[in-house]
Amino acid sequence: MTTTTLIWIIVVVAALLLVALVTGVVLSRRRRISLTEPEQDKPAQGYRAGGAITFNAPAPPPVVERPEPDLVEKAAPPVAEPRIATPPVPPPVTPPVSPPVSPPVSEPVVEPVAEPVEHPVAERTEVDGQPGVGDDAAVPRDSAKRGFVEVELPEQASEIDEIEPTEGRLERLRGRLSRSRSTFGQGLLGLLGAGDLDEDSWTDVEDTLLMADLGSAITDEVVAALREQIASRGVRTSDDARSMLRDVLVGVLHPEMNRAVNALPHSGKPAVVLVVGVNGVGKTTTTGKLARVLVADGRTVLLGAADTFRAAAADQLETWGSRVGASTVRGAEGADPASVAFEAVKRGVDAGVDTVLVDTAGRLHTKTGLMDELGKVKRVVEKQAAVDEVLLVLDATTGQNGLTQARVFADVVNVTGIVLTKLDGTAKGGIVFQVQRELGVPVKLVGLGEGADDLAPFEPHAFVDALLG
Ligand SMILES: Nc1nc2c(ncn2[C@@H]2O[C@H](COP(=O)(O)OP(=O)(O)OP(=O)(O)O)[C@@H](O)[C@H]2O)c(=O)[nH]1
C-alpha cells in the first residue's frame, strides 16, 4: 500500500467519523426540547366559567323505551333552555307542591310492582337493615309492602333558605381543587417548565399524570399528543408548553359533549331524574343541592326519597327539601323503593311540578339483588313518566373503585350523566378523565364541598384551568 493510498484511507475514515458525529448531535437535539422560562408568568387561572348549571328538556317525548343517547353526536351547543343564571334568586315562597301532595294516600299505590314475594323475617340474612355478605338476590329486600306515610312538613316560610346565585359559582369554588392543582399545577408545569425535556423528563410527566389518576390509556394519549405537538410546532418556552398541555387535556375531556341536565318538563309531564350510586358517595346531598339550583330557577320540584334502607336518608332529603320549599314523598323504612319512586312521580305528574328528583338507596354494586332492584325502580317509574336523566354519583376520592362502580351501574340502568363528588378532598382530580372515558357519558356536575351550594357544572376548560393553577 502506497503512502498516498494510506493518506486517502485516513482522510475517508476521518470524514465518515465527522459525518457520524454531526448526525448524532442533530438527532440528540431533536429529542431534547429546550424550554426557556418566559419573561414573566401569567397570573394563575382558575375556574373562569360562566358558572351556571344548564338544564334541558329532551326534545321528542320519549315513550317507555328511550333511545340510547349518543352524547358525542349531540355535540352541538346545549339546547337553549333557561339557564340558572340570575343572581340572587329569591327562593319561591309559594308552597310549590304541597296541595297535590297532601291528599291522603291511604290507598295502595303499588299495583304496578306488587307481585307478592314470600320473605319471612326468619329467612332474611340482614339483621340491621343493611345487606350482609352473601344475601345477594336470594331474598329481595322489597318483599314487605307498606303503605306511605304522610309526613308533616315544617313551616315553610321560616325555613326557606337564601340560595347562593349560581352565576359565578365555579369561580367561587375554584380554590376547592387545590389538592389536585398541586399535583397538576406544581408537578406537571414544573416539569414542563424546568428546561430541557429529555426521555427522563417525559417519564416524569407520565408518572405525574398517573399519580393524578388519569389512568394509563389517557396518560399515554396525553403524552403522545404533547410530544407530537411540541415537536411539530417547535415550542421553546414553558408558556407555550403550558398552553399545549391545556389544549391537550381539554381535548381529552371532550368539551363538545352536551352537559345540560335533562331536568325540565316536557310533554306536559315533569322531568324525572334518578340519582343513583353506592352508599355514601353523596347521592342525597347531590339531590338536595340540585333541588336548590332548580328552585332558584323558579322551578317546582318534588323529591322522592326512594332510599328506604336508612330512615335517616329520607329525613336528610326532607330537610333539604323543606329548606327550599320542595315537598318530599317518602315511604316507611324498609318499604319497596320502587313503589316510593312510583308514588313520587305519580304525585309529581298530578301536581304538575316541573321536576321530580328521586334519590335511590345506596346500592352495593356487587349485590346482584340490589342492582336488580334499581332496574326495577326505573322500570316502574317509567309507567308514569319517562326517566329523563339518570345521574350516577361517584366519589372522586375512591379512585379506581369508582370506575368499577360505574361499569356495573351502566349495565343496570342507562346512565346519562355523571356527578363527581368530593373533588375538594382529593389530589386525584384526574379521575374525571377516566370516568368519562369509561362510560362514554359526560361528567355533568361536580361536588366541591359539603355546603348547600357547593355543586357546580362541569366545564372542561374551566376545570383544566383550575387544575393547572
Ligand atoms: N367534601 C365533600 N363532601 C361531600 C360532597 N358531597 C357529599 N359529601 C358528604 O358525603 C357524605 C355522604 O353524603 P350522602 O349524601 O349522605 O351520601 P349518600 O350517597 O346519599 O349515602 P347513603 O344514603 O348512605 O347511600 C356527607 O357527609 C356529605 O356531606 C362533596 O362534594 N364534598
Automatic annotation (TrEMBL):
Keywords: Cell membrane, Cytoplasm, GTP-binding, Hydrolase, Membrane, Nucleotide-binding, Receptor, Transmembrane, Transmembrane helix. The chain crosses the membrane at residues 6-27. Coiled coil: none annotated. It is an enzyme of class 3 (hydrolase). It is a peripheral membrane protein. It comes from the Bacteria. Residues 442-455 form the SRP54-type proteins GTP-binding domain. Residues 85-106 have a biased composition (Pro residues). The keyword Cell membrane applies. Residues 38-68, 81-109, 122-145 are annotated as: Disordered. It is found in: Cell membrane; Cytoplasm. HAMAP family: FtsY. Belongs to the GTP-binding SRP family. FtsY subfamily. Involved in targeting and insertion of nascent membrane proteins into the cytoplasmic membrane. Acts as a receptor for the complex formed by the signal recognition particle (SRP) and the ribosome-nascent chain (RNC). PANTHER family: SIGNAL RECOGNITION PARTICLE RECEPTOR SUBUNIT ALPHA. Part of the signal recognition particle protein translocation system, which is composed of SRP and FtsY. This is Signal recognition particle receptor FtsY. It comes from Saccharothrix xinjiangensis. The gene is ftsY.
